[in-house]
Design goal:
By secondary structure, the chain is mostly helical. It has 14 helices and no strands. Helix 2 runs parallel beside helix 10 and helix 9 packs antiparallel against helix 10.
Length: about 230
Amino acid sequence: MNQEIVKKAFVKTLPVLAGYVVLGTGFGILLRNAGYGVLWAFAMSAFIYAGSMQYVGVSLLSGGASVVTTILTTIMVNARHLFYSISMIDRYKDAGKYRPYMIFALTDETYSLLSDGHAPSEGDPNLYRFLVSLFNQCYWVTGSVLGSLLGAVLPFSTAGIEFSMTALFIASFTEQWLTTRDHIPALTGLLSTLLCLLIFGAERFLIPAMLLITLLLTLLRSRQEKLA
């Protein structure tokens, strides 16, 4: 039974495998070019494991940013996790020994795979969610280490490489758009973000956009529950 769950979790994460190895490789190359070796790449991906923040972290490390700046930047970049993770509370509350790691490993892509609530009808659904989370992090760590090793022996131009995270977000959004009939949440996110970008500017729009999206989706909750 556990072998079947492992197989299903692995198959579920194949799209993330393709993205994370490439994106992790980009991060490893960027980190190597900043002067930090393979142990740094492994440690950051194993213990921080926050893709977009790791890309930003390279600039913070190489630029000698202060602790306060690092903390504030981390909050701004990862603030979205506070909002979309709320919807996973019910699914994770009975996860037992798996829960601490599953909370730590809830990235954007892992959330995208698990937010539909689908799990194998037979076996432990918490084990399935744990394995999906674990596989995804293994892909990211592998890509980061690979990128660091490649960056040490091959010359790479890192110009524009940070856009790879944006590309992955777009791919995840497109997949969810194509696999669901109700596009109200997606449109709410897009329009709210655009409005806040116009009002607050590129440097300050993230937190207001998250708050606005949360407010609107809360108001629309009864409608969404009926559709579900």
